[in-house]
Amino acid sequence: MTLLSLQNMKTQIGQYHVLHDISFEVPQGGVFVLLGRNGAGKTTTLRSIMGLWQPQPGSVTFKGKDISTLATADIARLGIAYVPENMGIFGGLTVEENLVLATAKGRFDQTRLRRIYTLFPALEQFWTKQAWSLSGGQKQMLAVARAIIEPRDLILIDEPTKGLAPSIVAAMGEAFREIAQDTTILLVEQNFNFARSLGRDMAVIDDGRVVHRGTMADFAADTDLQGQLLGLSA
Amino acid sequence: MMNRVSETLGRLGGVNLLPLALAAVAFVLIGAPSSWVTLTVAGLSMGMMVFLMASGLSLVFGLMDVLNFGHSAFVSFGAFVAATVLAALSTWLDGGWMLASAALALALLAAIAFGLAAGLFFETVIIRPVYRDHLRQILITMGALIVSEQIILAVWGGTPVSVPRPSFLEGAWIIGDVSMEIYRLFAMGLGAVVFVGLMVLLNRTRIGLLIRAGVENREMVEALGFKINRLFIGVFMLGSALAALGGAMWAGYETLITPALGGEMMIVVFIVVIIGGLGSIEGTLLGAIIVGLTANYIGYLAPKLALASNMILMMAILMWRPSGLRPAVK
Ligand SMILES: Nc1ncnc2c1ncn2[C@@H]1O[C@H](COP(=O)(O)OP(=O)(O)OP(=O)(O)O)[C@@H](O)[C@H]1O
Ligand SMILES: [Mg+2]
């Protein structure tokens, strides 16, 4: 079943046409990977889905409903969480406050909280610390934890491994695998090895257009295509 | 060595120690302890009233990057509304403690109610169309300020209006050779109560959590499913009501008010918000107390410098800390 569908999405930022033709369908379940070079339009795509930029009306469908003209808060309430490239955590708030803010009722569901402690033990350890004092990896964990503290249908995650040590990247990969069992993840990644290990379906964006769609298994096997689309050497 | 000193100072309270340092320096310079106490009380009470006026401006800027130059209109209106209510109830003011308190409470509540309503109107009609456009914000809020001043002029006239005070707030407490005006102590107490209330709101409630988060990162608050615009209306109304309350208290302090009152206070309010650090209530309180104390100490020690002292203070602090003493985390 298709969870999210982008049909010829165009997005303009100010007078710049950044996205020209973004079309792909994210099926329910698992990890869908969005690849592309720097400046290709990956972040803009996620922001357009989230309503933080205004996409072409009619071009974004979520669970069968057109969400292209909804306000960001309403899109979030339909069950989409966003983990931005800069993580967007609230530095002046404690780890606990960051998470409690993301709950619907201002109270924790103990089961979900325990799951977060298991996925990211550091968060339990630094529970009452202000978030600005966390390390880069811990901030990323907090940003992801905030996205799953309530049940969601779709999580948009923008380059979560950027600048992280290999051991933390591995832990993040484990967490995503676990999360993807009941929540769909739309993952933007530059780290191809990380993306390959997680993704089932994928698309490649270049210069504001989708230039390739397919399964990760096929793409991973085709080193020529990778070189051509991502500039990766074989 | 320097590091050790600054670390120790940091642990003791860092920039929060500035008012104490200021008071200590003034104590030495003034020489006469009784004058020093009087001036310190005057400075603290002025600081608390300015804090009332400034806190809303700081939160509004922190939350939405909105620069509201019309903020002082709320101060003026608060002053005139309270003065009108007090004048209308002047027989109550002489009618014993209970009746006088009731008149005062009604005057302050009227100012607050007016501030809430004016804030709602101002936010939805004047500010809403110019979110995210600083130049137009400055122009339109300045314009609104001028219109408000003209309205006050039309309703209350240009001659100074005198503000009656309840008799129990008149006079001074005299302890030894130290005298402290009762009205000033009352203003200090009221400001402190409001500060504590704001801290509880910001730090102990979900709305407060949202405000603090929104000051840091509006977009992310939206992405978590909250409508920041609704939050902003609430904060704007609260800020306007506090400004009106500050104006009402200031009216009782000055006892004679003119339509220029808001404009005169605006400069002080902006200085306070800037040196305190935009978006932070603790910073605003700190800035207000420092400005209040400085104005009173300098007014006594070097009256000719009194006008320039706040500007000099602001420049000195900004050279040392460009984003203010206690800015909100951005
Ligand atoms: N706020 C903006 N104003 C103008 N142009 C922008 C803005 N944000 C992004 N762009 C432009 O849109 C294009 C796509 O940017 P985007 O951030 O979506 O790329 P990306 O694929 O996420 O890149 P990266 O891998 O470096 O994060 C770039 O050319 C960028 O310069
Ligand atoms: Mg990007």
Short précis:
Helices cover 36% and strands 26% of the residues of chain A. Chain A is α/β, with parallel strands linked by helices.
Description:
Chain A is of the alpha/beta class. Chain A has a domain at 1-79 and 154-163 and 182-234: P-loop containing nucleotide triphosphate hydrolases (Rossmann fold, 3-Layer(aba) Sandwich), CATH 3.40.50.300. Chain A has 10 helices and 10 strands. Chain A has helices spanning 42-49, 72-77, 95-101, 110-119, 121-125, 136-148, 166-179, 192-198, 216-221, 223-230; strands at 2-13, 16-27, 31-35, 60-62, 65-66, 80-83, 154-158, 184-188, 201-206, 209-215. A 6-stranded mixed beta sheet of chain A has the order 6-7-8-3-9-10, with helices on both faces. A 4-stranded antiparallel beta sheet of chain A has the order 2-1-4-5, with helices on one face. The radius of gyration of chain A is 17 Å and the shape is globular. Chain B is mostly helical and 330 residues long. Chain B has one domain (18-320): ABC transporter involved in vitamin B12 uptake, BtuC. Chain B is built from 14 helices and 4 strands. Chain B has helices at residues 2-12, 18-30, 33-64, 71-88, 90-93, 97-127, 134-156, 182-204, 206-216, 218-223, 228-254, 261-276, 281-301, 306-320, and strands spanning 161-162, 172-175, 178-181, 256-257. In chain B, the strands form 2 sheets. A two-stranded antiparallel sheet of chain B has the order 1-4. In chain B, strands 2-3 form a two-stranded antiparallel sheet. Chain B is globular, with a radius of gyration of 20 Å. The model of chain B has no long low-confidence stretch (mean pLDDT 91). Classes of the chains: A alpha/beta (234), B mainly alpha (330). The A-B interface holds A 50, 52, 71-73, 76-77, 81-82, 84, 88-93, 97, 100-102, 104, 106, 132, 146 and B 206, 209-210, 212-213, 216-217, 219-228, 328-329. Bound molecules: adenosine-5'-triphosphate (ATP) and magnesium ion. Magnesium ion binds next to helix 1 of chain A.
